[in-house]
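Ticket #440: bound-state structure for iron/sulfur cluster.
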Amino acid sequence: MTTPKKLFIKTYGCQMNVYDSERMAEALGGEGYVETKDAEEADMILLNTCHIREKAAEKVYSELGRIKPLKERNPDLKIGVAGCVAQAEGEEIMRRQPAVDLVVGPQSYHRLPEMEARLREGKKALDTDFPEEDKFDELKARPKAKRAPSAFLTVQEGCDKFCAFCVVPYTRGAEVSRPVSRILEEARALIDRGVREITLLGQNVNAYHGQGADGSEKSLADLIWALSDVDGLERLRFTTSHPNDMQDDLIEAHRDCPKLMPYLHLPVQSGSDKILKRMNRSHTADSYLRLIERIRAARPDILLSGDFIVGFPEETEEDFQATLDLIREVNYGYAYSFKYSTRPGTPAAERAQVDAAEADDRLQRIQALITQQQQAIQQAMVGRDLNVLIEKPGKFDGQMVGKSEYLHAVHIDECKAQIGDILPVRIVEAKRNSLAAVSR
Ligand code: 5AD
Ligand code: SF4
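RESOLUTION: The complex was predicted; output attached.
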């Protein structure tokens, strides 16, 4: 019997990369690879990269510089770069770091087995096409051991919005939705392996418009309703959404579909109409706030989360104050804020940049406000009766950790529940990054 080859994958960036790394591991599993957590013993190292912000490519090159010496110890070691930096940089990666054997863009992962065969012949392999064939079909999840109770499932990829700061439309390509039947099939396979909660992923997930069984186009709400009929699937979430694609049927699903969790990530990026216009966001602060009102009317307890960029070109203190005002008005349960970073090839990269120290200062101020809101919302959970999907044992003996409906991490001492159970609890304490509960 030959010993299996070892694969080490390092994943950067978003949840879609986490999902993609799992699929790549499965695709290479068919070629005799098993995953390892130790890069030093690997026969193949794959960096699944992210290009969304700050010096992403430079970080990848320095990581490659650290990995390269491992080839001296294991001359058969293959080094690959996947993800959005691979897409954006292409051949340049092999030019700058000749130790790299493989470069594969996000739309070509299903071709990894063929590419790996090339590597075995001592050749290099590069593929950053946007192929015609459906990579998901080719990457069908192979039956595998039991999985964690919460899983990601990509339903949509790419983006047609072209926000002026964002590389996604260039690295992930145009919007594509997977057909409903394929998604149902993958969901059932996940449930057979112990999954109880699925987060539907897409760069612009609420623009989903996949083909239904009857050939007609289905919305994300239609897809959610179809999934909610699947036995054994208890919880549904989706991310990330654009305000302009928040259709009525999706808002109604938040009101009417018991399996759809009361949590919505709806980035607005800025509270200033001038900046929103320059960002090419095609909504205003006011239209966003009115949308939030409608969502809250449908599901009053929904927990909102968002993304913000500070220091976008031409953002003044007044524009920044408008963003803080919007945050105060919405009251976010979670929010992620980033300092604008130029992405070559995007329209905003050409514009006059905000002073770096000023942008740092704004980032600190926005983060202080967000933290304050998050803590207050977490504090307000104390005394509430929630349901926790148990995910893993906690740090202490007898303790289990899981997620509430609102995505807060909750830990329960002396917990008798098993991984995968949904346990009714009462929240007794809010800590900095989690809640403590007792079972009811
Ligand atoms: N600079 C800073 N933040 C960015 N994001 C996307 N592109 C950039 C950029 N060039 C942020 C947005 C987006 C999140 C995923 O990353 O807020 O919603
Ligand atoms: Fe990027 Fe999101 Fe804008 Fe698309 S909608 S361009 S993914 S920020």
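RESOLUTION NOTES: Residues 159, 161-163, 166, 168-169, 203-204, 242 surround iron/sulfur cluster (ligand 2) (CB under 6 Å).
TICKET STATUS: resolved
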